[in-house]
Automatic annotation (TrEMBL):
Protein's gene: cimA
SUPFAM superfamilies membership: 2-isopropylmalate synthase LeuA, allosteric (dimerisation) domain, Aldolase
Pathway: Amino-acid biosynthesis; L-isoleucine biosynthesis; 2-oxobutanoate from pyruvate: step 1/3
Name assigned to this protein: Citramalate synthase
SMART domains the record matches: LeuA_dimer (SM00917)
Signal peptide: none
All residue ranges annotated as the Pyruvate carboxyltransferase domain in the record: 6-272
UniProt keyword annotations, A-Z: Acyltransferase, Amino-acid biosynthesis, Branched-chain amino acid biosynthesis, Isoleucine biosynthesis, Transferase
GO terms for biological process, alphabetical: isoleucine biosynthetic process; L-leucine biosynthetic process
Protein's UniProt keywords contain Isomerase: no
Organism name: Tianweitania sediminis
Enzyme class: transferase
InterPro entries: 2-isopropylmalate_synth_dimer, AIPM/Hcit_synth_CS, Aldolase_TIM, Citramal_synthase, LeuA/HCS_post-cat, LeuA_allosteric_dom_sf, PYR_CT
Amino acid sequence: MTRERLYLFDTTLRDGQQTPGIDFSVEDKIAIARMLDEFGLDYVEGGYPGANPTDTAFFGRKQTKRARFTAFGMTKRVGISASNDPGLAALLQAQVDAVCFVAKSWDYHVRVALGCTNDENLEAIEASVKAAVGAGREALVDCEHFFDGFKANPDYAIACARTALEAGARWVVLCDTNGGTLPSEVRDIVGKVIAAGIPGENLGIHAHDDTGQAVANSLAAVEAGVRQIQGTLNGIGERCGNANLVSLIPTLMLKPAFADRFEVGISGQALAGIARVSHAFDEILNRAPGEQAPYVGASAFATKAGIHASAIAKEPQTYEHVPPEAVGNRRRVMVSDQGGKANFMAELARRGIDVPRDDSRLDTLITLVKEREARGYAYEGADASFELLACQTLGHVPEFFSVTSFRCMVERRFDANGQLRTVSEAVVKVMIDDEEKMSVAEGNGPVNALDIALRKDLGKFQHEIQDLVLADYKVRILDGGTEAVTRVMIESQDGQGARWRTVGVSNNVIDASFQALMDSIVFKLMKNRQLAGRVAAE
Ligand SMILES: CC(=O)SCCNC(=O)CCNC(=O)[C@H](O)C(C)(C)COP(=O)(O)OP(=O)(O)OC[C@H]1O[C@@H](n2cnc3c(N)ncnc32)[C@H](O)[C@@H]1OP(=O)(O)O
Ligand SMILES: CC(=O)C(=O)O
């Protein structure tokens, strides 16, 4: 059976630019456009030439090889001709394949926002599309507020779409601009638009996520007949965002309801890189990837639950709706107080530690983890501390060194220049092969001073920890009041690119930090001897 083609239109660099807190540079835009182009999107909308210097510079040359490079802008203003409209001129000067106009299609907006008549707005749509087509560009028209407009005045909303199409637009995109439309309404209205004679093969959908249903609305529109979907990477966009292409694309390609009927321009191989694309985009935005993001989040194929882990060990698809590898993700079976033997055996096997189900030491390890988690430890996020605990329980961890004492001081005092300063100092004594070493260090705070002192002189092990750096340090207070317990999570990395996480818990933040620091150093020494850390580089 031949499948119908669905076209994917990316507006990360245009609607995504309207996200509070997001501000792309020209270099960001170039990198993102290249990533989208290589991934296989059909259209990459780069922004609004003429609206700001970044976008004008970005549109100075064509930025995609395969995707149709698209400029966005409003229809010509009423009262001036298309050839005299400076905004339209900037759009037509852009080095693009296509121009996407935003046009009013709700008569209320025509009256209030534009302050013109319904007919004048239709004339502006017609003249703008004709100007773009006349300049050799493919024309698209985003019908702003189409669904709200249709509810208020269906004849006028359809007249806007028809005018655009008859003037030569390739696509008329139905926009849920305020994001309040529900999937059943989208399905119903798209059906009525097609019944009114606007072909589905010329229709697109642009959905906002204000009710958390932008993806569902996009899919409902496709089911009702539209053949273009607009969306953004990771769902960024005005207010609550746009339809998330990172959720939509795997659904279109992997779910039989869509995959059997439609094809998109993205290869299966590219789909297997979608998690990487999503994370690379977060990296450009300088934010952490969403752990629970559908398909691509670290938790998307993770389970803590013992009952699930046990079935997954038998057959993974018992608890997986698609294979994680299809979207470049991986299965994670985690150890925590929610886990049973299957979780622990899977996690230990991943670390190269095979232990039989009936080994009583496994029960001891599970009991230890559950008891410690009840006291505040969180091993699912502290892989290295878990591995050390497992090695201690199931085998052996060498005593490389022991800390006989440490002391931290925080003092506010005047320095030699008469400036008031808060100084943190730590003193650590360690025993290595019956020899005691004492190190003193100052730091930005007491934990930093303790870390520097602890790693200052480890005798014969010192050269082994030279490349160890602390990448992240997080403190969490678990109980309120005087019974407060502090959990410290530390992320460490070394020169080989390995990263590992350790945890410490105490009612004293310095003590909790010390435990996590110690675990980090001991893990590094174990890893150097290939006694641990087989998966630390993941
Ligand atoms: C639903 C959407 O996401 S649409 C995209 C929205 N994105 C943006 O607005 C980002 C880029 N925008 C901008 O940088 C600026 O708004 C510009 C450069 C486009 C225009 O700036 P200004 O000329 O200063 O106008 P301003 O932003 O104050 O107001 C928008 C004007 O466009 C008019 N307008 C809005 N939509 C349309 C349209 N589809 N067709 C014609 N004119 C329109 C408004 O009536 C208003 O005109 P007025 O100034 O005569 O009242
Ligand atoms: C065009 C657009 O971004 C909207 O109507 O939401």
